């Protein structure tokens, strides 16, 4: 298959008559849509009565699209079981943490672990794969839709039994579980695995080990379901398989994509929250290293439902968003959705075409994206995203820890996104890595907000340091065990042994008047913090508060590199300045070269071609225009004119592509 960039939309032909479908295909071609995603909610259309399965409608749609130059990603319809599956069968349904059983009428209302759901899901998926797997218009598969976006851990009887099996496989004996979880606290001690409850409503909080392990159990089970669906599809099709996920969902994305072929995500970040959007691109690029990711859903202008709506994009932003995605490693940029739905709970949602067949407020943006796609496609195909020299670890397992232990409503996603934003503003090219990623080629590794640092991760990081890397650990990293308990040998466990630091206290610095001083900057400190002994490792000290004169920032040599402990988070405007200073100091001292001086609101996405030629895609994303410092003379890829080293201007939402000589 010839390599190309995809520009697509989710399409639901089962909702429309033949005349509208013909009109839609005509309009798709005019808008430059070259891929459609179909089938994800169409279980009823495929199997209106139990056992009576007919996939011919979708076979015809795929063929018709292909005849018109539009390829297809086919989805399995398992998020929306039909009424014959749900009616009078509460035992098959999802049960929330309050013990409430879901009914029919939305999506994700069934328990994906129920054996009859698994049976029927496997049957419908096998029928689809047999009927569609050989079609020339098919280029990929999507399993289900947005696992665990509306629900989290199911509390039904099926899950209770699987939970007990999972615990027995993990701990082998209930005595091992009791010891690991410290269940003599509050007389929680269990005499059999069958006695271990699900985290149902309780007078106060559940044991942290129970809550976090149940979340991990749920994450593993949804990944196993995805694996089983992929296994069925692969019997009949060689096209690559993905799932459309996102950071907020109750899944472990690293585990989810482990056995899929490429990674994709959905995003509805408003332009004010572009850091979140960019972080997703930098993370999804690394779930399947070396393979392009897909943006499977984004809005042409705004997201909405019956209950809410988001601010529309400014004119020009959609193009900037799309070129940034392609430049950062996306193969596809797709919308939800093509034609506005006339019924249901998402009627108000932004789309390409309205329910009555006219262009929406986002349509002009779609045309601009298509014009841009054609322009940059040859350059994107002949280059790859340049590996960064700076890495930031992201972990959905850490997300589970924060859900169990949020303290003052600490939100893992928000903490990581705000931390990440500083790298963007400093013009540092960065990779956001899952926990098990290799560290070759990096000079600096940041590990913030990772309550539990596994032995495997620590060993890889230590080896990275010995080989000359700089590892910055914290804030809120390393203070919990794999069982979500507190270390008993040292506050940070074996981390203190390898780095040679001494943690004195762990407590919240909010409201204590504590200020941190390092590298000529000073700022208030906050959140749950680790305070260190002030000794030869100290590079940042605490002024005021309960730990006057102690350290919040330490630096230890190890092999050819160094381990840095950032024990507390600088907060407020002064905190942003101090944190940027800390980041910049260690990136500079590590001789990181893949960075540039770029104005706020503008980004640089470096790519590399044959003969190691470097190409920069420069995009203004705030509508204010901006500038970037070019380190050497370059060629403008569109005008073919020379561009001098020095200040390089870009207009509002403008993009430029330059290649260095």
TrEMBL record:
Species for this entry: Alkalihalobacillus trypoxylicola
Xref: Pfam families: Glyco_hydro_42, Glyco_hydro_42M
GO cellular component terms, A-Z: beta-galactosidase complex
Active site: 146 (proton donor), 297 (nucleophile)
Every Beta-galactosidase trimerisation domain range: 388-590
Source domain of life: Bacteria
InterPro entries: Beta_galactosidase_Trimer, Class_I_gatase-like, GH, Glyco_hydro_42, Glyco_hydro_42_N
Residue ranges occupied by any Glycoside hydrolase family 42 N-terminal domain in the UniProt entry: 11-375
Residues given in the record as Zn(2+) binding sites: 111, 154, 156, 159
GO molecular function (one): metal ion binding
Catalytic activities: Hydrolysis of terminal non-reducing beta-D-galactose residues in beta-D-galactosides
Keywords: Glycosidase, Hydrolase, Metal-binding, Zinc
Annotated family: Belongs to the glycosyl hydrolase 42 family.
BP terms from Gene Ontology: carbohydrate metabolic process
Record-listed substrate binding positions: 107, 145
Name listed for the protein in its UniProt record: Beta-galactosidase
